[in-house]
Design brief:
With 88 residues, this protein is an alpha+beta fold. It is 28% helix and 30% strand.
Length: 88
């Protein structure tokens, strides 16, 4: 599963040919969650509150890029990196 972004110790990943609804995985330490692209809400798993807020903020700011990567993943095309929250 490719890592498409990394910020504040949070890895953002997306599986190829994953199940709907369109989502991505956020991994922070031993915590892992599936996050819906459309809403930024955790739909499965758990993240600590601060990490969940950061992931939601990032996800909502990058919805178009995430949707494009979702389409690439469904078509088995290489995914694009997306800048993290801590980028200069």
């Amino acid at each position: 599963m490719p890592t498409i972004s990394w910020f504040y110790g949070i890895a953002i990943r997306m599986y190829f040919l994953d199940h709907p609804p369109p989502h991505f995985q956020a991994v922070y330490g031993e915590h892992e969650a599936n996050v819906e692209i459309a809403t930024g809400e955790v739909i499965e798993g758990h993240l600590p509150l601060t990490a969940a807020r950061l992931v939601k903020q990032w996800g909502l700011a990058h919805q178009a890029e995430l949707r494009a990567n979702w389409d690439r993943a469904r078509a088995k095309i290489a995914l694009e990196r997306i800048v993290g929250l801590d980028a200069d």
